[in-house]
Amino acid sequence: MYHILNTLYIMTPNAYAHLENNTLRVDVEREKRSQVPLHHLGAVVCFGNIMISPALMHRCADDGINFVLLDSNGRFKARLESAVSGNIFATSGAISKSSR
Q1: DSSP string of 45-88?
Q2: Phi, psi of 9 (to 5 degrees)
Q3: Which of 43, 11, 4 is nearest to 24 (CA)?
Q4: What's the half-sphere exposure (Cβ side, CA atoms, 13 Å) at 100?
């Protein structure tokens, strides 16, 4: 596991990432490997067979922490992002005016 620029990279096979109080805890074979406060994270990248608890996914979505899921070779599988706020009509209007 590496923690670089507010991104946590989980690469240990069969790791389990879950929520413990206000921290993300990573266990391997039921032993604690790493524990990082959620307010230090901007994203979590998981390589291979990593289990993630639903409570952690919900909390990260609420806090704006993104998840990226990659297979063991590093190919993109999925991404979990929190809701994006903004006025779509104002954004589309600005895009159409700039393309003229």
Answers
A1: EEESS-EE-HHHHHHHHHHT-EEEEE-TT--EEEEE-PPPPS-H
A2: -105, 120
A3: 43
A4: 5
Q: How many C-beta atoms lie closer than 10 Å to residue 19's C-beta?
A: 18
Domains and CATH numbers, the chain: 2-98 (3.100.10.20)
Cβ contact 43:8 at 8 Å: yes
Torsion of CA 13, 8, 54, 59, to 10 degrees: 170
**Cβ atoms of residues 24 and 56 within 8 Å:** yes
Distance CA 38, CA 63 (A): 8
> Does the pTM of the predicted model rise above 0.70?
yes
CA-CA distance, 89 to 73, in Å (whole number)? 40
pLDDT, tens digit only, all 100 positions of the chain: 666 779 999 999 999 999 999 999 999 999 999 999 999 999 999 999 999 999 999 999 999 999 999 999 999 999 998 877 766 666 666 666 666 6
